[in-house]
Specification:
The chain is built from one helix and eight strands; from the N terminus they run αββββββββ. The chain is an alpha+beta fold and 119 residues long.
């Protein structure tokens, strides 16, 4: 009898401890991840655009050097605006158009810029 009570008690403790690690995401929409790459020799690469008020050295939009002079930035889409996002890259403090941009547009103020849309 004592053995059954002990086994049952251990089972209940194990169940309670495991249930604290369960996370539910009811009602939450899955966040899309966006990736940007820049290929070229550089000391630093940032992204600036209308989504961050064109801040040149915003640490949230700093690319990471991977390998073979390939830089990458991966962020959830909530770091950007719904609708049109205009942007440029800042490579070693020089403004550069992203050659991989889904769209490009000429502007009077900034010249050619990259453009992508979030629905």
């Amino acid at each position: 009898m004592i053995k059954k009570v002990l086994v049952f008690s251990l089972f209940i403790l194990f169940t309670i401890s495991c249930s604290n690690n369960v996370k539910t995401y009811q009602g939450k929409k899955e966040t899309k991840i966006l990736s940007f790459t820049y290929k070229g020799k550089a000391k630093s690469v940032f992204m600036a655009g209308n989504f961050n008020n064109w801040k040149v050295s915003d640490p949230r939009y700093k690319f990471t050097l991977k390998e073979n002079d390939t830089w990458e930035l991966t962020l959830p889409e909530n770091y950007f605006l719904k609708g049109e996002n205009e942007y440029k890259l800042i490579v070693d403090n020089e403004w550069v158009v992203d050659e991989n941009a889904p769209e490009k547009r000429d502007t009077k103020l900034a010249g050619k810029i990259g453009l992508f849309k979030i629905e």
